Fold:
Amino acid sequence: MSNNTVDTVVIGAGVVGLAIARELTQRKKDVIVIEKETTFGSITSTRNSGVIHAGIYYDAGSMKAKLCAKGNRALYDYCNKKNVPHINVGKFVVATSEDEAKKLDSIYNKAEENEVVGISRVTKDYVNKKEPLVVCYEALEVKSTGIVDQQSLMRSYIGDFEDNGGMIAYNTEIKDIYIEGQKFKIISSDGTIIIANSLINAAGLEAHNITGLIDGFSKDLIPKIYYAKGNYFETNKKLGIKHLIYPLPTEASLGLHLGLDLSMQMRFGPDVEWVDQINYTVDPSRVNLFYNDIVKYLPAIKKEDLRPGYSGIRPKLKNKGEGKSDFMIQSSEEHGVKNLVNLFGMESPGLTSSLVIADYVSNLVE
Structure:
């Protein structure tokens, strides 16, 4: 059994944990990241759409609204500076009926409040010139939306972090966490002990369980987490679509959108499937739900063009029907433990906001 002493331990090597660890080492902190998987970002950070979000949907005053638009600009700057593969493709949010078109107003107004740049109301003729196969009544064009290679982004964060002397311990499961005086004693299942001055819990889907391991931490302060699975269907069809296409958002998701990867290959999703257990199998029978949604704005697609792709799970702080879920970044102000930060409900737009979240969290510890 060995004892290591560091400034900060970050639990979780997803995109948010890595961004925080990177930022702390930029501030000359000695940091270890603990990750129970064999590699980085394998749970939630690579099981998403890889979208650089503009920040148009989030309620003013929410954490997501505060962090996303700023995060968008910071992420483009970073990707340009570090040559991380990304494309500023832009997106259309399409209303397929007059009723739906009325809802575009509230999205547009929210976007203005959230200081989103490059958003405009556009006509169906405008959309048709850009995307002849997309059917709509009216749309919003969001120029600042893009796509990024999540793996490359995280590799770049790790590169910066390791260049500054940071270290990642993979395959490491945490068994107990004790608060001893002003320090944290973190014991892994193989008996390794790390003593840290500050502790950042960025464990994603496991963040609430990790908090439960902190000896003496009040259970009343650990939020209940609900799992909203997002399934994706893929297609080999080449339709030459160049923008992301989003229908109107629902309470729990941004709708079944047409996404693109960096080779401009289309995929559709994510949907929302509330689950009790973490499992990543995509049920092929969901194709009917997908097809019925997609065909409204992309009639060129046929049901047989779609095949099950991958899935991810969003940790939500609100259950089905309870409204929109925000990020929760819990610091000593909320729980009274100095230099402990817990991040709960970190889902979309966590990737987009990662650099800004990192800055925010780094200011919460000494």
